[in-house]
Amino acid sequence: MSDPKVVGFVCDWSVDLTSLLDGMRLRELPTVRVIRVPCSGFVRPSWLEDALTRGADGVFVLGCPYGDCLNREGNYLMRDRVDQLQRRLQRRRVDPARMAMLAHGLHDREAFLAEVRAFLDRLRALAAPPSKAAAPVPPAAPAPAAAAEGEPR
Amino acid sequence: MSVTSPEPRTGYGRLMTGVLRGTLKLDVLVNRIYPSDFNPLYYTGGLANLFLFVLVLSGIFLFFYYEASLGGAFASVQYLTERVPYGGIVRGIHRYAADGFIIAVLLHLLRNWFTDRYLFSRDNPWISGMFLLVFGGVIGFTGYQLVWDDRAQALTAMFLAMLRVLPGGEPLARVFVGGAGISDGTLVRILFLHIGPASALYVLLWWHYTRLRHPKIWPPAVWVLFCVGVVFLLAGVIPALSGRPAAPAAQPTAFPLDVFFLWPFWLMNWLGAPGVVVLLGLLTVAGFAIPYLGRRERPQEMDVRHAGVAQVIDGNCTGCELCYFDCPYNAIVMVPSPAPGLSRAAANRTLLAVVVESRCVECGICIGACPFEALELPKFLERDVKTRVLEAVRA
Amino acid sequence: MRNAYSVGLVLLIGLSLLFAAGIVAGEATDRWFFGGALVGALLIAYSIIVLLLRKMGLIGPRKAER
Fold first, then answer.
1. What is the pLDDT of residues B166-194, one digit of tens each?
2. CATH code of the domain in which B47 resides
3. Count of beta carbons in the 10 Å neighbourhood of residue C36
4. Which of A24, A134, B213, B236 is within CB 3.0–4.6 Å of A145 for a Cys-Cys bond?
């Protein structure tokens, strides 16, 4: 089985990924794709859910270390939103291990890579993701089943 | 990807980026000893507030014993130091907490400068913070005058020389002294110039906090204990003492220097009064100008971090207040919804969110909070995010 | 590592008791600067005790950050 596909929303003020990125991918872990955001608190939980239904095996948000968010509270707010999303999706049989909140500072590259590797390992151990389990069509097509309940689009 | 890329093109930008990296490296080192919720570098403002609190309490005690007159000032301070139980300790606490205050404020200033925490509408707390620093410096100086020993006398003479350099300086000096020569009235004025601005510090602090949600006013317990402890220890081991009583005939040429408050007077040895006045003026102007002239990155280099002030999409807003509660800068206010509204959401709401653009720092936290897509950053829209997600998943 | 912390904790608790006794002695003999300095030393010892307890896991993160 190939490496799990992971989408990460990375705060531009947090860890320094300058030499680790090749366009959107992490050079060392090419199945991890990074989207830069102005603050970890900018991320809407529905985007995380969207990434999962559109074919990602896992999704994470990376913010500054707790206590040092440039915008003071963004990482705490995002942590709470990710917790809430994990519980909401668990009721729909999506494993909460597919979502993660990370917190690393400018110099914490190694710790960040180690945590992402651990995240990938946890994903490998899980069953097939919701988008692949819901429909027999190729994973790139957005699966309506997981998105049917109540969530705006 | 981050705050240090792309490589800044100006020498100043490269210098400040290096300083930013160094400042955050210090965090890494401190976090090895202290868990991050105890890291004092995350609470520099709170530390300053702690020292201010200690100053106010010890100051009230000192005020009860102080006599503002030429004859009584020195004697009352001596009485307090030598005859009142723990009086000398409280005096020492007042002096060392003042130094601690200045150190904490400078740490706070440097950290917020070097980590870009003055951008966009955060220039407002920077300005109030500069006022706090300047007021603090003046209050400390008047404190040294109140003791009315030979050092205070020398300082007063030097201060009057500095005043006279300014345009309108002679009348100013006369107002300060309260007449032609130093008298009891002078000390009353100095006492006012000590306590009045100290009270004004709390008004300035209100201004400093008003644009922040949940300001970190109090440091963690470890640091409260440690800082109060250090201040007591210093007060006991190196007592704060007066010099010789001030006398009109005395011409003191040297005195012990508290570098944090009295450094301008030390520099007068080389620069003279006009030089020091000009230097103080330049430093003050430079300090106030940092948010406007001291930017590390040009706007184009900031990319997603400069995506425009948040905009409310009126048609989608339901007045749920989630963005209002999440904004760390109190930049969103809820107003009564203007009737009747063009959409279902507008027709059914009682409140409408409005972004106060002068307070928005373009962080986007409100976008993350809103379940109804009623907020957007103009240069990084929902659909831009969706495109990126598709790109990430398809690749 | 935990043993080192426990040793440090016991040491500091002992020192704190000593400092507290010293404060009382200073008060009794009117040596206020001595007493005051010991108040400071005691508070510093307390701050290190709190830090050690936190590193040993006996007390948790600040409420705001849980």
1. 999 899 999 999 888 888 999 999 999 99
2. 1.20.810.10
3. 26
4. A134
- Quote the domain boundaries for residue A81: 6-135
Tell me the per-residue pLDDT of B281-328, one tens digit each, with 9 for 90 and over: 999 999 999 999 988 888 888 888 999 999 999 999 999 999 999 999
Q: What is the pTM of this model?
A: 0.90
| Binary contact (C36, B231; C-beta < 8 A) | no
How close is the nearest chain A Cα to the Cα of B234, in Å?
30
Q: How far apart are CA C54 and CA C2, in angstroms?
A: 11
* C65: chain A residues, CB-CB within 8 Å: 66-67, 76
Q: Is residue A73 part of a domain?
A: yes
ipTM of this complex: 0.94
**DSSP letter, residue A72:** S
Chain C residues with CB-CB distance to A66 below 8 A: 65
Give the CA dihedral B99, B102, B107, B109, nearest 10 degrees.
Answer: 180
Residue position matching structure tokens 């005058």: B145
From A63, A61, A74, select the one nearest A8 (Cα to Cα): A61
A66 touches chain C (CB under 8 A): yes
C52 touching chain B per CB within 8 A: no
- CATH value at residue A79: 3.40.50
Any idea which residue has 């000192």 for tokens? B62
Give the span between the Cα atoms of B167 and B55, in whole angstroms: 34
